[in-house]
Write a structure and sequence with these properties.
24% helix; globular; 4-stranded antiparallel sheet
Length: 148
């Protein structure tokens, strides 16, 4: 399930949430790990990285981005616990947003692609819709999660 941030072909971050890392886990810690892949295309650079993220990280980003869309100012950040992907979207109160971040190809140490891309407010509804879709499929699990 994909979350696309940016232009369709030119400059973007594509976060593909693939599956639960531990689908048979019945505790909230292991049950909320997700396997993902990110493609970052900015300027003359394209990078692909894979890693794990937490469903809570997506939920937090979704909430911050919804607030940013309402106010057009402030920021929304996405940071993976393992540090392989992080970015921050900042609004200027006029409908313009800058997204800066880093993608790393190794755990703790690795090659780093630092990036910056610009979008406007017309992109935010689509990002929020894709986040909602991913969140509904990979929702945050609590302690009472049952094995399916």
């Amino acid at each position: 399930m994909e979350i696309h941030i940016g232009h369709s072909e030119h400059e973007f971050i594509l976060l593909d949430v693939i599956s639960r890392s531990y689908p048979n886990s019945n505790d909230s810690h292991d049950g909320n790990w997700l396997d993902a892949k990110a493609i970052v295309k900015v300027g003359g650079f394209t990078g692909t990285v894979t890693g794990q993220l937490r469903s809570e990280e997506l939920a937090s980003f979704q909430a911050e981005l919804a607030n940013l869309y309402k106010s057009l100012s402030g920021s929304a950040k996405f940071v993976t616990l393992e540090g392989w992907l992080s970015f921050k979207i900042i609004g200027d109160k006029m409908g313009h947003f800058s997204c800066t971040g880093e993608a790393m190809d190794g755990f703790v140490q690795g090659n780093v692609l630092s990036f910056n891309l610009n979008i406007d407010q017309t992109f935010l509804p689509g990002i929020l819709k894709s986040l909602e879709k991913v969140e509904s499929f990979f929702s945050v699990q609590n302690e009472s999660r049952k094995i399916r």
